[in-house]
Structures are given as C-alpha cells and as structure tokens.
Amino acid sequence: MEKSVFSTEASKAISDEYLAVRLTGGRDITPEVQDFMGKYSVRGYPTIFVMNADGHVVNGRVGRTAEGMLKALADGEKAEVEYRELKGKEDAASKTKLARLLIDRALQEEAEELLEELAETAPSADVHEALAYLYRKQQDPDAETEKLQEMLGLYPKADKRNSWRIRLAFLPMESADRASGPEIGAAVITSLGELSAEFEKGGDTNTAAEVRETMARLSMMIGKADEAVQHIDWVLANAKDSEYAPKCLMHRANVKWRAKDFEGCKGVLEQILEDYPESEDAKRAPGGIKNCEKQMGG
Known about the structure:
two-stranded antiparallel sheet, Glutaredoxin, 15 helices, 2 strands, globular, mainly alpha, Serine Threonine Protein Phosphatase 5, Tetratricopeptide repeat
C-alpha cells in the first residue's frame, strides 16, 4: 500500500493531519503485535483501523485507497462525536447503542458490564442482540448460540428474529476446523436451504436474499464455487436492490479471481462501484481492481 496509497498526492491530506502506523505480521511478528492482533480480532492482512489516541477503534471499515481512507477518517471523527454524546445519556436505548460502540472500539469488558446491567434493569431484544454481538466478537460460539436460542424464546415477534435464525444455523461453522469444515458446511447449507425455501414461499424476498448470500459465502468457504454461483444469481435476479446484492457481486468477483479470470473479476468490481457506490463492498473494490490489473500486466 506504500505505492498505491501513501506515495500518492492524495495521501498528503492524511499525513498532514493524522499519524499512520504500520504493524508487521507474518514470520517476523513480535509478541507485542500478536497481543494487538488478539485484542483487536485481526484475522488477515491488510487490516486497517482508524484509532484515536486512547487506542479505541473509531472506524474499522476503511477503504484501501487514499480517498477511501480520507472518508474513513472523516467518518471516524463523526463517530467520536456520537460516542461523546451517548456517554452523556442515561436512557436504555442510548446505553445500548453505546455498548455496541464500545464493542466495536474493542472495549469489550466495559461493554459487557453495561449490557449485563441493562439485561437486569431494562431487558429488551436490542440489549440481548448486543450481547450476542459481543459473544460473536469474543469468538465464543457456544455463548452466542445460547444467547440466540434465548432470544428466540423471549421475543417471538421481534423484527430481526429471522436474522437470528440465520445466524444460529450458520454458527456450527464457527467451530469447524479444516478437516471438519466441508462436512459441517454441507450440513449448514442444508439447514440454510430449508430456511430460504420457507422465506421464498412466504414472499419474504429480502430475508431469503440474506440466506442466499450466506449460502454463497459458505459455499465459497468449502470450495463449492458452482453452488455459490447459483445463490449469487438468485440474489441478483430477485433482490438486486437489497443490501445483499453488492455482497453477492463481491462473491462473484472472488469466484472469477480463483478461476484466474482477472479481466472478469475486474469487470464485476467495476460493476459494484457503478451500481452500489455507497456499499461497504465499494470501499474494497478499488484495491481489488488494482490487484486484477497487476495480474493482467497492467
């Protein structure tokens, strides 16, 4: 990224106002970097955060271009304002929003204490959902499973109930290893397929698209690209205006990348930028386009 971002003219606006810090992993990783990766749940490279002087992650969604980084920095400043405002409020809804911000800022102990208090004094679907999100960030699938099952019993009419069911069906994959992954993945896809059929029959296209996107992602994980394409095609044909459409286009780009169809991959990434410029996947697309061009000899 030194060449593609930090050596460009646009990057001057970053260095003038912010401090860029790079930590190196791989074979030469130090214990300090290992501790950092564990605390902030870093799972791959490159991972880019906008952080404040206190070590809080104020924005974990950062584009891999100078422009994308500048937008992420601006969004991070807005998040700091929201954080300070929420810290001064005492109502349960504001405290629940604050807890989720604390989770995203890697302040999990503080978030857990706040959410456990809310679960006792002002229990709600949002509070329990935030606890499930905390367990997800802590990579504790057993605790998350237990919480989701509890939520389904407590809140039978919750708006996000179907999303909880989808996440619950997917959770066995969180404990799968390389050896068991394909078998567990196939079982999870079967369970998700039953949910998708239920939602499609009931006319709930958006939730069906959520399931199909999850199935596409999982199919990619276990090496079944052909099955992934079927789910991708369904979402793009039936729910092209949903939030899952750009995600599925990114899956399609990955299918083409793995097949070494770099020109096709680039075309899909350009489609994301054109059709879904405000999506999270659009932030990742420019970096992918440059990688495709590099592979194509551009």
